[in-house]
Amino acid sequence: MIRFPPEVVMNKTDEAVRRARERSGEHLALLKEIVTIPSVSTDPERKADVARAAVWMNDKLVEFGANETKIIATPGHPVVWAEFRASEPDAETILLYGHYDVQPVDPVELWDTDPFTPTERDGRLYARGASDMKAQVMACLLAVRTLVESNALGMTVRFLLEGEEEIGSPNLAGAIEANADLFRAAVCLNLDSGMVGPGIPSIRYALRGLAYFDLTIRGPSRDLHSGGFGGVVHNPAQALAELIAGMHNADGSVALPGFYDRVREIDAEEHARAAAVPVSAEDLLAQSGVPALWGEKAFTPVERIGARPTLEINGIWGGYTGAGAKTVIPAEAHAKISTRLVPDQRHSDVHAQLAAYLTENAPPTVTWELRQLAGGEAFICDPNSSYHKRFAAALTSVWNREPVFSRNGGSVPVAADLEQILGMPSVLSGFALPDDRVHSPNESQDIATWYQGIEAVIRFLAAESA
User: Fold this and answer.
1) Candidates 3.30.360.10, 3.30.70.360, 3.90.1150.10, 3.40.640.10; correct CATH number of 210-263+309-375?
2) Which strand (E) or helix (H) includes residue 318?
3) Residue 462: its pLDDT value, please?
Protein backbone atom coordinates (compact mmCIF):
# COMPACT_ATOMS: atom_id res chain seq x y z
CA MET A 1 0.00 0.00 0.00
CA ILE A 2 1.30 3.47 -0.94
CA ARG A 3 1.73 5.82 2.01
CA PHE A 4 2.37 9.55 1.94
CA PRO A 5 5.69 10.63 3.54
CA PRO A 6 5.04 12.58 6.76
CA GLU A 7 6.78 15.69 5.42
CA VAL A 8 4.39 16.00 2.44
CA VAL A 9 1.74 18.71 2.86
CA MET A 10 -1.46 17.12 1.57
CA ASN A 11 -4.43 18.90 0.06
CA LYS A 12 -7.97 17.80 0.96
CA THR A 13 -8.10 15.28 -1.87
CA ASP A 14 -4.88 13.59 -0.79
CA GLU A 15 -6.12 13.64 2.79
CA ALA A 16 -9.32 11.88 1.69
CA VAL A 17 -7.29 9.25 -0.20
CA ARG A 18 -5.11 8.70 2.87
CA ARG A 19 -8.22 8.30 5.02
CA ALA A 20 -9.67 5.74 2.57
CA ARG A 21 -6.46 3.70 2.60
CA GLU A 22 -6.36 3.64 6.39
CA ARG A 23 -9.94 2.35 6.50
CA SER A 24 -9.59 -0.30 3.79
CA GLY A 25 -10.36 -3.12 6.21
CA GLU A 26 -13.56 -1.45 7.33
CA HIS A 27 -14.53 -0.84 3.71
CA LEU A 28 -14.08 -4.50 2.84
CA ALA A 29 -16.18 -5.52 5.86
CA LEU A 30 -19.04 -3.33 4.59
CA LEU A 31 -18.83 -4.91 1.14
CA LYS A 32 -18.96 -8.34 2.73
CA GLU A 33 -22.04 -7.28 4.69
CA ILE A 34 -24.09 -6.22 1.68
CA VAL A 35 -23.20 -9.26 -0.47
CA THR A 36 -24.67 -11.56 2.18
CA ILE A 37 -28.15 -10.28 1.22
CA PRO A 38 -29.50 -12.52 -1.59
CA SER A 39 -31.16 -9.73 -3.58
CA VAL A 40 -32.06 -11.81 -6.65
CA SER A 41 -34.55 -9.58 -8.45
CA THR A 42 -35.90 -12.17 -10.88
CA ASP A 43 -36.94 -14.61 -8.13
CA PRO A 44 -40.34 -13.81 -6.51
CA GLU A 45 -39.27 -15.74 -3.42
CA ARG A 46 -36.44 -13.21 -2.94
CA LYS A 47 -38.67 -10.12 -3.02
CA ALA A 48 -38.23 -9.52 0.71
CA ASP A 49 -34.46 -9.87 0.35
CA VAL A 50 -34.38 -7.29 -2.45
CA ALA A 51 -36.36 -4.91 -0.21
CA ARG A 52 -33.93 -5.63 2.63
CA ALA A 53 -31.01 -4.66 0.39
CA ALA A 54 -32.75 -1.38 -0.47
CA VAL A 55 -33.23 -0.58 3.22
CA TRP A 56 -29.56 -1.47 3.90
CA MET A 57 -28.45 0.96 1.19
CA ASN A 58 -30.73 3.69 2.51
CA ASP A 59 -29.52 3.18 6.09
CA LYS A 60 -25.87 3.43 5.00
CA LEU A 61 -26.53 6.61 3.03
CA VAL A 62 -28.08 8.15 6.14
CA GLU A 63 -25.18 6.92 8.29
CA PHE A 64 -22.65 8.34 5.83
CA GLY A 65 -24.10 11.83 6.09
CA ALA A 66 -26.70 12.22 3.34
CA ASN A 67 -28.74 15.39 3.69
CA GLU A 68 -31.82 13.58 2.45
CA THR A 69 -32.77 10.04 1.41
CA LYS A 70 -35.87 8.38 0.03
CA ILE A 71 -36.99 4.86 -0.86
CA ILE A 72 -39.21 5.20 -3.93
CA ALA A 73 -41.77 2.45 -4.45
CA THR A 74 -42.32 1.07 -7.96
CA PRO A 75 -44.60 -1.69 -9.27
CA GLY A 76 -41.59 -3.94 -8.79
CA HIS A 77 -38.54 -3.41 -6.58
CA PRO A 78 -37.79 -0.02 -5.00
CA VAL A 79 -35.40 2.73 -6.07
CA VAL A 80 -33.19 4.34 -3.43
CA TRP A 81 -32.42 8.06 -3.75
CA ALA A 82 -30.11 10.25 -1.69
CA GLU A 83 -28.47 13.65 -1.85
CA PHE A 84 -25.19 14.89 -0.37
CA ARG A 85 -25.01 18.66 -0.79
CA ALA A 86 -21.71 20.35 -1.49
CA SER A 87 -20.72 23.21 0.77
CA GLU A 88 -20.57 25.61 -2.18
CA PRO A 89 -24.10 26.60 -3.26
CA ASP A 90 -23.15 26.92 -6.93
CA ALA A 91 -21.44 23.51 -7.12
CA GLU A 92 -22.59 21.34 -10.00
CA THR A 93 -24.67 18.24 -9.34
CA ILE A 94 -23.66 14.72 -10.34
CA LEU A 95 -25.77 11.56 -10.25
CA LEU A 96 -24.17 8.30 -9.14
CA TYR A 97 -25.97 5.22 -10.47
CA GLY A 98 -25.87 1.67 -9.21
CA HIS A 99 -28.01 -1.42 -8.77
CA TYR A 100 -28.24 -3.54 -5.66
CA ASP A 101 -29.96 -6.55 -7.25
CA VAL A 102 -28.03 -9.60 -8.42
CA GLN A 103 -28.31 -12.55 -10.79
CA PRO A 104 -29.54 -16.00 -9.72
CA VAL A 105 -26.82 -18.35 -8.46
CA ASP A 106 -27.76 -21.36 -10.60
CA PRO A 107 -26.18 -23.81 -11.08
CA VAL A 108 -25.39 -23.56 -7.38
CA GLU A 109 -23.51 -26.88 -7.34
CA LEU A 110 -20.73 -25.31 -9.43
CA TRP A 111 -19.86 -22.77 -6.73
CA ASP A 112 -16.77 -23.57 -4.67
CA THR A 113 -18.25 -21.71 -1.67
CA ASP A 114 -21.71 -20.54 -0.67
CA PRO A 115 -22.74 -17.71 -3.05
CA PHE A 116 -23.94 -15.47 -0.23
CA THR A 117 -21.16 -16.20 2.24
CA PRO A 118 -18.36 -13.83 1.14
CA THR A 119 -15.04 -15.63 0.95
CA GLU A 120 -11.56 -14.12 0.48
CA ARG A 121 -9.20 -16.18 -1.64
CA ASP A 122 -6.09 -15.18 -3.59
CA GLY A 123 -6.78 -11.46 -3.33
CA ARG A 124 -10.40 -11.77 -4.42
CA LEU A 125 -13.77 -11.63 -2.70
CA TYR A 126 -16.07 -14.42 -3.89
CA ALA A 127 -19.85 -13.95 -3.68
CA ARG A 128 -22.80 -13.37 -5.95
CA GLY A 129 -22.95 -9.64 -6.64
CA ALA A 130 -19.41 -9.02 -5.38
CA SER A 131 -18.42 -7.65 -8.77
CA ASP A 132 -21.80 -7.00 -10.42
CA MET A 133 -22.35 -4.60 -8.97
CA LYS A 134 -22.29 -4.27 -5.21
CA ALA A 135 -18.56 -3.56 -5.12
CA GLN A 136 -19.05 -0.74 -7.62
CA VAL A 137 -21.95 0.72 -5.63
CA MET A 138 -19.94 0.55 -2.44
CA ALA A 139 -17.00 2.27 -4.15
CA CYS A 140 -19.30 5.24 -4.72
CA LEU A 141 -20.82 5.23 -1.23
CA LEU A 142 -17.44 4.92 0.48
CA ALA A 143 -15.83 7.58 -1.70
CA VAL A 144 -18.60 10.05 -0.88
CA ARG A 145 -18.47 9.24 2.82
CA THR A 146 -14.71 9.76 2.85
CA LEU A 147 -15.00 13.11 1.05
CA VAL A 148 -17.74 14.29 3.42
CA GLU A 149 -15.62 13.38 6.43
CA SER A 150 -12.64 15.17 4.88
CA ASN A 151 -14.72 18.26 3.99
CA ALA A 152 -13.57 17.76 0.40
CA LEU A 153 -16.76 17.00 -1.55
CA GLY A 154 -16.61 19.22 -4.62
CA MET A 155 -20.01 18.41 -6.13
CA THR A 156 -23.54 17.93 -4.92
CA VAL A 157 -23.98 14.19 -5.27
CA ARG A 158 -27.25 12.39 -5.84
CA PHE A 159 -27.65 8.61 -5.81
CA LEU A 160 -29.96 6.47 -7.95
CA LEU A 161 -29.80 2.87 -6.76
CA GLU A 162 -32.24 0.46 -8.38
CA GLY A 163 -33.24 -3.14 -7.70
CA GLU A 164 -34.25 -4.29 -11.18
CA GLU A 165 -31.24 -3.88 -13.46
CA GLU A 166 -30.72 -7.62 -13.76
CA ILE A 167 -34.26 -8.02 -15.14
CA GLY A 168 -34.02 -5.13 -17.62
CA SER A 169 -35.06 -2.19 -15.38
CA PRO A 170 -38.76 -2.42 -16.35
CA ASN A 171 -39.91 0.22 -13.84
CA LEU A 172 -36.93 2.56 -13.82
CA ALA A 173 -38.04 4.93 -16.58
CA GLY A 174 -41.35 5.47 -14.81
CA ALA A 175 -39.59 6.21 -11.54
CA ILE A 176 -37.30 8.73 -13.23
CA GLU A 177 -40.21 10.45 -15.00
CA ALA A 178 -42.24 10.67 -11.78
CA ASN A 179 -39.28 12.02 -9.78
CA ALA A 180 -37.40 13.98 -12.42
CA ASP A 181 -36.38 16.83 -10.10
CA LEU A 182 -34.78 14.39 -7.66
CA PHE A 183 -32.60 12.77 -10.31
CA ARG A 184 -31.71 15.80 -12.40
CA ALA A 185 -27.95 16.40 -12.65
CA ALA A 186 -25.26 17.58 -15.04
CA VAL A 187 -23.99 14.05 -15.67
CA CYS A 188 -24.33 10.49 -14.39
CA LEU A 189 -21.34 8.42 -13.31
CA ASN A 190 -22.25 4.79 -13.93
CA LEU A 191 -19.73 2.16 -12.79
CA ASP A 192 -21.58 -0.84 -14.23
CA SER A 193 -19.24 -1.33 -17.20
CA GLY A 194 -15.90 -2.62 -15.93
CA MET A 195 -12.31 -2.67 -17.19
CA VAL A 196 -10.97 -4.29 -20.36
CA GLY A 197 -8.17 -6.01 -18.44
CA PRO A 198 -6.14 -6.04 -15.21
CA GLY A 199 -4.36 -2.75 -14.59
CA ILE A 200 -6.08 -1.12 -17.60
CA PRO A 201 -8.53 1.59 -16.48
CA SER A 202 -11.38 1.89 -18.93
CA ILE A 203 -14.12 4.28 -19.96
CA ARG A 204 -16.96 2.94 -22.08
CA TYR A 205 -18.79 5.35 -24.36
CA ALA A 206 -21.43 2.96 -25.72
CA LEU A 207 -23.67 0.16 -24.47
CA ARG A 208 -25.71 -2.33 -26.39
CA GLY A 209 -29.48 -2.48 -25.97
CA LEU A 210 -31.44 -5.59 -25.05
CA ALA A 211 -34.54 -7.47 -26.13
CA TYR A 212 -35.31 -10.64 -24.14
CA PHE A 213 -37.90 -13.26 -25.04
CA ASP A 214 -39.52 -16.46 -23.86
CA LEU A 215 -40.44 -18.85 -26.70
CA THR A 216 -42.73 -21.87 -26.25
CA ILE A 217 -43.30 -24.51 -28.94
CA ARG A 218 -46.38 -26.74 -28.45
CA GLY A 219 -47.26 -30.03 -30.13
CA PRO A 220 -49.41 -32.81 -28.65
CA SER A 221 -51.89 -32.10 -25.87
CA ARG A 222 -49.81 -34.14 -23.43
CA ASP A 223 -46.48 -36.00 -23.28
CA LEU A 224 -46.71 -39.01 -25.57
CA HIS A 225 -45.13 -42.48 -25.56
CA SER A 226 -42.29 -42.20 -28.07
CA GLY A 227 -42.77 -45.78 -29.16
CA GLY A 228 -46.42 -45.24 -29.97
CA PHE A 229 -46.14 -41.86 -31.66
CA GLY A 230 -42.50 -41.50 -32.75
CA GLY A 231 -42.36 -41.04 -36.51
CA VAL A 232 -45.87 -39.59 -36.84
CA VAL A 233 -45.79 -36.67 -34.36
CA HIS A 234 -43.31 -33.82 -34.81
CA ASN A 235 -41.43 -33.56 -31.53
CA PRO A 236 -41.70 -29.96 -30.18
CA ALA A 237 -38.13 -30.18 -28.86
CA GLN A 238 -36.91 -31.07 -32.35
CA ALA A 239 -39.01 -28.31 -33.91
CA LEU A 240 -37.57 -25.81 -31.43
CA ALA A 241 -34.02 -26.96 -32.19
CA GLU A 242 -34.65 -26.58 -35.92
CA LEU A 243 -36.05 -23.08 -35.49
CA ILE A 244 -33.18 -22.00 -33.26
CA ALA A 245 -30.62 -23.44 -35.68
CA GLY A 246 -32.07 -21.24 -38.42
CA MET A 247 -31.79 -18.00 -36.44
CA HIS A 248 -28.17 -17.56 -37.57
CA ASN A 249 -26.66 -17.60 -41.02
CA ALA A 250 -23.55 -19.58 -41.87
CA ASP A 251 -21.36 -16.48 -41.43
CA GLY A 252 -22.60 -15.95 -37.85
CA SER A 253 -24.97 -13.10 -38.68
CA VAL A 254 -28.54 -13.07 -37.36
CA ALA A 255 -31.16 -14.38 -39.80
CA LEU A 256 -34.23 -12.50 -38.53
CA PRO A 257 -35.87 -10.48 -41.33
CA GLY A 258 -34.99 -6.78 -41.11
CA PHE A 259 -32.65 -7.27 -38.14
CA TYR A 260 -29.86 -5.17 -39.65
CA ASP A 261 -32.04 -2.49 -41.28
CA ARG A 262 -31.31 0.12 -38.59
CA VAL A 263 -27.81 -0.98 -37.56
CA ARG A 264 -25.36 1.93 -37.49
CA GLU A 265 -22.27 1.08 -39.46
CA ILE A 266 -18.82 1.26 -37.86
CA ASP A 267 -16.88 4.23 -39.25
CA ALA A 268 -13.12 4.63 -39.57
CA GLU A 269 -12.77 6.35 -36.18
CA GLU A 270 -14.66 3.53 -34.49
CA HIS A 271 -12.50 0.93 -36.23
CA ALA A 272 -9.41 2.73 -34.94
CA ARG A 273 -10.73 2.88 -31.36
CA ALA A 274 -11.58 -0.82 -31.44
CA ALA A 275 -8.14 -1.67 -32.79
CA ALA A 276 -6.55 0.22 -29.88
CA VAL A 277 -8.35 -1.86 -27.23
CA PRO A 278 -5.73 -4.21 -25.76
CA VAL A 279 -7.89 -7.34 -25.93
CA SER A 280 -6.77 -10.13 -28.27
CA ALA A 281 -8.43 -13.27 -29.56
CA GLU A 282 -6.12 -15.20 -27.25
CA ASP A 283 -7.37 -13.18 -24.27
CA LEU A 284 -10.98 -14.02 -25.12
CA LEU A 285 -10.14 -17.69 -25.56
CA ALA A 286 -8.49 -17.75 -22.14
CA GLN A 287 -11.33 -15.87 -20.45
CA SER A 288 -14.10 -17.98 -21.96
CA GLY A 289 -12.48 -21.41 -22.01
CA VAL A 290 -13.81 -22.20 -25.51
CA PRO A 291 -11.66 -24.06 -28.09
CA ALA A 292 -12.25 -21.41 -30.80
CA LEU A 293 -13.99 -18.08 -31.29
CA TRP A 294 -17.11 -17.72 -33.43
CA GLY A 295 -19.03 -14.93 -35.12
CA GLU A 296 -19.04 -12.54 -38.05
CA LYS A 297 -15.66 -12.87 -39.72
CA ALA A 298 -15.93 -9.42 -41.32
CA PHE A 299 -15.46 -7.81 -37.90
CA THR A 300 -12.80 -8.14 -35.21
CA PRO A 301 -13.70 -9.82 -31.91
CA VAL A 302 -13.71 -6.44 -30.11
CA GLU A 303 -16.07 -5.02 -32.73
CA ARG A 304 -18.35 -8.04 -32.50
CA ILE A 305 -18.61 -7.64 -28.73
CA GLY A 306 -19.32 -3.91 -28.62
CA ALA A 307 -20.48 -2.61 -31.99
CA ARG A 308 -22.42 -5.45 -33.63
CA PRO A 309 -25.85 -6.84 -32.63
CA THR A 310 -26.21 -10.47 -31.57
CA LEU A 311 -28.79 -13.14 -30.79
CA GLU A 312 -28.14 -15.67 -28.04
CA ILE A 313 -29.97 -18.70 -26.66
CA ASN A 314 -29.85 -18.27 -22.87
CA GLY A 315 -31.67 -21.48 -22.00
CA ILE A 316 -33.45 -24.37 -23.70
CA TRP A 317 -35.50 -27.18 -22.17
CA GLY A 318 -38.37 -29.58 -22.70
CA GLY A 319 -39.49 -33.12 -21.99
CA TYR A 320 -37.83 -35.32 -19.42
CA THR A 321 -34.62 -33.96 -17.88
CA GLY A 322 -34.38 -36.06 -14.70
CA ALA A 323 -32.11 -38.96 -13.88
CA GLY A 324 -32.30 -42.10 -15.95
CA ALA A 325 -34.52 -42.67 -18.99
CA LYS A 326 -38.09 -41.77 -19.83
CA THR A 327 -39.16 -42.25 -23.43
CA VAL A 328 -41.59 -39.45 -24.24
CA ILE A 329 -42.39 -36.94 -26.94
CA PRO A 330 -42.86 -33.78 -24.86
CA ALA A 331 -45.99 -31.66 -25.20
CA GLU A 332 -43.91 -28.47 -25.06
CA ALA A 333 -40.38 -27.16 -25.48
CA HIS A 334 -39.05 -23.79 -24.34
CA ALA A 335 -36.21 -21.36 -24.96
CA LYS A 336 -35.01 -18.10 -23.47
CA ILE A 337 -33.67 -15.85 -26.24
CA SER A 338 -31.89 -12.50 -25.92
CA THR A 339 -30.62 -10.03 -28.48
CA ARG A 340 -28.01 -7.35 -27.87
CA LEU A 341 -28.69 -4.26 -29.95
CA VAL A 342 -26.57 -1.38 -31.24
CA PRO A 343 -27.45 2.30 -31.65
CA ASP A 344 -30.54 3.02 -33.80
CA GLN A 345 -32.01 -0.47 -33.36
CA ARG A 346 -35.25 -0.61 -31.32
CA HIS A 347 -36.12 -3.51 -29.04
CA SER A 348 -39.78 -3.28 -30.06
CA ASP A 349 -38.76 -3.89 -33.68
CA VAL A 350 -36.91 -7.06 -32.71
CA HIS A 351 -40.09 -8.55 -31.22
CA ALA A 352 -41.79 -8.07 -34.60
CA GLN A 353 -38.75 -9.46 -36.46
CA LEU A 354 -38.59 -12.59 -34.32
CA ALA A 355 -42.34 -13.10 -34.70
CA ALA A 356 -42.01 -12.73 -38.48
CA TYR A 357 -39.23 -15.32 -38.52
CA LEU A 358 -41.38 -17.77 -36.57
CA THR A 359 -44.41 -17.15 -38.77
CA GLU A 360 -42.33 -17.86 -41.85
CA ASN A 361 -40.38 -20.85 -40.57
CA ALA A 362 -42.45 -22.67 -37.93
CA PRO A 363 -43.88 -25.89 -39.42
CA PRO A 364 -47.64 -26.54 -39.39
CA THR A 365 -47.07 -29.48 -37.05
CA VAL A 366 -46.59 -27.22 -33.99
CA THR A 367 -47.81 -23.90 -32.59
CA TRP A 368 -45.72 -21.21 -30.94
CA GLU A 369 -46.04 -18.45 -28.37
CA LEU A 370 -43.55 -15.58 -28.03
CA ARG A 371 -43.42 -13.26 -25.03
CA GLN A 372 -41.07 -10.31 -24.60
CA LEU A 373 -39.78 -10.22 -21.02
CA ALA A 374 -37.51 -7.16 -21.14
CA GLY A 375 -36.24 -4.49 -23.48
CA GLY A 376 -33.93 -1.49 -23.47
CA GLU A 377 -32.33 0.75 -26.05
CA ALA A 378 -28.66 1.03 -26.93
CA PHE A 379 -26.64 4.03 -25.76
CA ILE A 380 -23.76 5.98 -27.26
CA CYS A 381 -22.21 9.28 -26.20
CA ASP A 382 -19.35 11.69 -26.92
CA PRO A 383 -16.21 10.32 -25.22
CA ASN A 384 -14.55 13.74 -25.51
CA SER A 385 -16.85 15.58 -23.07
CA SER A 386 -15.41 17.52 -20.13
CA TYR A 387 -16.79 14.91 -17.71
CA HIS A 388 -15.10 12.08 -19.55
CA LYS A 389 -11.85 14.03 -19.45
CA ARG A 390 -12.25 14.69 -15.72
CA PHE A 391 -12.87 11.03 -14.93
CA ALA A 392 -10.03 10.01 -17.24
CA ALA A 393 -7.73 12.27 -15.24
CA ALA A 394 -8.88 10.64 -12.00
CA LEU A 395 -8.22 7.16 -13.39
CA THR A 396 -4.81 8.21 -14.71
CA SER A 397 -3.79 9.61 -11.33
CA VAL A 398 -4.53 6.25 -9.67
CA TRP A 399 -3.30 3.76 -12.29
CA ASN A 400 -0.51 5.93 -13.73
CA ARG A 401 -1.70 5.26 -17.25
CA GLU A 402 -4.40 6.79 -19.42
CA PRO A 403 -7.66 4.84 -19.68
CA VAL A 404 -8.76 2.92 -22.74
CA PHE A 405 -11.95 4.19 -24.41
CA SER A 406 -14.15 1.46 -25.84
CA ARG A 407 -17.67 0.23 -26.37
CA ASN A 408 -19.24 -2.25 -23.96
CA GLY A 409 -21.19 -5.29 -25.07
CA GLY A 410 -23.52 -5.32 -22.08
CA SER A 411 -26.79 -3.50 -21.50
CA VAL A 412 -27.48 -0.95 -18.77
CA PRO A 413 -30.92 0.54 -19.53
CA VAL A 414 -30.54 3.54 -17.22
CA ALA A 415 -28.05 5.26 -19.54
CA ALA A 416 -30.57 5.50 -22.38
CA ASP A 417 -33.40 6.32 -19.93
CA LEU A 418 -31.52 9.27 -18.44
CA GLU A 419 -30.60 10.57 -21.87
CA GLN A 420 -34.14 10.28 -23.24
CA ILE A 421 -36.02 11.54 -20.17
CA LEU A 422 -33.66 14.12 -18.66
CA GLY A 423 -31.20 14.81 -21.49
CA MET A 424 -28.44 13.65 -19.14
CA PRO A 425 -25.13 12.26 -20.44
CA SER A 426 -23.35 9.41 -18.69
CA VAL A 427 -19.74 8.50 -17.98
CA LEU A 428 -19.50 4.70 -18.03
CA SER A 429 -16.73 2.90 -16.22
CA GLY A 430 -16.17 0.47 -13.37
CA PHE A 431 -13.66 -1.76 -11.64
CA ALA A 432 -14.86 -5.24 -12.54
CA LEU A 433 -12.41 -7.38 -14.51
CA PRO A 434 -13.09 -9.77 -17.41
CA ASP A 435 -12.28 -12.81 -15.27
CA ASP A 436 -14.66 -11.84 -12.42
CA ARG A 437 -17.16 -14.43 -13.71
CA VAL A 438 -20.14 -12.11 -13.48
CA HIS A 439 -23.46 -13.92 -14.04
CA SER A 440 -21.61 -17.21 -13.51
CA PRO A 441 -20.71 -19.47 -10.57
CA ASN A 442 -17.76 -18.26 -8.48
CA GLU A 443 -18.24 -14.57 -9.21
CA SER A 444 -15.59 -12.45 -7.51
CA GLN A 445 -14.12 -8.96 -7.25
CA ASP A 446 -10.39 -8.27 -7.25
CA ILE A 447 -9.93 -6.47 -3.94
CA ALA A 448 -6.84 -4.39 -4.82
CA THR A 449 -8.54 -3.12 -7.98
CA TRP A 450 -11.61 -2.20 -5.92
CA TYR A 451 -9.50 -0.15 -3.50
CA GLN A 452 -8.03 1.70 -6.46
CA GLY A 453 -11.53 2.31 -7.74
CA ILE A 454 -12.55 3.98 -4.49
CA GLU A 455 -9.59 6.33 -4.84
CA ALA A 456 -10.51 7.15 -8.44
CA VAL A 457 -14.07 8.10 -7.45
CA ILE A 458 -12.68 10.23 -4.61
CA ARG A 459 -10.46 12.13 -7.03
CA PHE A 460 -13.30 12.60 -9.52
CA LEU A 461 -15.71 14.04 -6.94
CA ALA A 462 -13.23 16.05 -4.92
CA ALA A 463 -13.17 19.84 -4.82
CA GLU A 464 -9.51 19.61 -5.87
CA SER A 465 -10.00 16.99 -8.58
CA ALA A 466 -7.34 14.43 -9.54
Assistant:
1) 3.30.70.360
2) strand 310-318
3) 94
